[in-house]
Amino acid sequence: MRAFIAVDLPDNIKEEIYNISKDLKAFGKIVEKDNIHITLAFLGDIKDSLIEDLYKRLLDNLSSFKSFSISIDGFSSFNSRVYFFNAHSEELNRIYASIESILIDMKLDRYLDKEFRAHITVLRAKKRLMLNESKLAELSSYKRSFLCSYVSIKESRLRSNGPLYTDIYKIYLKS
Predict the structure, then answer these.
(1) pLDDT in tens, 130-163
(2) Cβ(9)–Cβ(34) under 8 Å?
(3) Could you give the count of Cα atoms lying within 13 Å of 80 in the half-sphere of its Cβ?
(4) Statement: the pTM of the whole predicted model exceeds 0.90
(5) Residues 171, 53, 118, CA angle at the centre, nearest 5°?
(6) Structural domain tally of the chain?
(7) pLDDT at 52 over 90
(8) In this model, does residue 57 exceed pLDDT 90?
(9) CATH of the domain at 119
(10) What whole-number distance in Å separates Cα of residue 13 and Cα of residue 36?
(11) What CA–CA distance (Å, rounded) separates 107 from 56?
(12) How many Cα neighbours within 13 Å face the side chain of 59?
């Protein structure tokens, strides 16, 4: 199964992000509202038995963390092709470090980024893109924060009309 570890956003924030991003559709593939999230680690194709083991390890490790706030502030891109909102939280960085350690131990670290940068992808452009100043200013001015109370292991099914993400497990944090 193709899987990843993520933080979900509240529905109202997904709705807002989708609405201010949807006019970027002319430039490439926008992320559907239901698929908006923060990826902590992409796992690729992974055996079901490893998913079960990963869940147990994450449950042991992450359940000691308390719910925490994540701030959304600023808009940026990777190579002018992948556009995203920045997400900030020291606690999220600590959770990522715990996940990274588990994935390295399980030898599931082949897709880990060299440096974690929490973000919410909204557009994958067909070619390098330079947004006009007014659109960039509008997107950059979006600021919100939300409470993160769980981390999910999700399945990603690729379909012709876009990916379908389904929760496999949720690891709840202390309230």
Answers:
(1) 888 888 899 999 999 999 999 999 999 999 888 9
(2) no
(3) 6
(4) yes
(5) 45
(6) 1
(7) yes
(8) yes
(9) 3.90.1140.10
(10) 9
(11) 16
(12) 8
How far is Cα 112 from Cα 46, in angstroms, rounded to an integer? 14
> What is the residue whose two structure tokens read 């706030």?
69
How far is residue 163's CA from residue 75's CA, in Å, rounded to a whole number? Answer: 23
Contact between residue 75 and residue 6 where contact means Cβ atoms under 8 Å apart: no
Range of the domain at 33: 2-172
Q: Mapped to the 3 state alphabet, what secondary structure does the chain carry?
A: CEEEEEEECCHHHHHHHHHHHHHHHHHEEECCHHHCEEEEEEEEECCHHHHHHHHHHHHHHHCCCECEEEEEEEEEEECCCEEEEEEECHHHHHHHHHHHHHHHHCCCCCCCCCCCCCEEEEEEECCCCCCCHHHHHHHHCCEEEEEECEEEEEEEECCCCCCEEEEEEEEECEC
The pLDDT value given to residue 76: 93
Q: Are 68 and 38 in contact (CB under 8 A)?
A: no
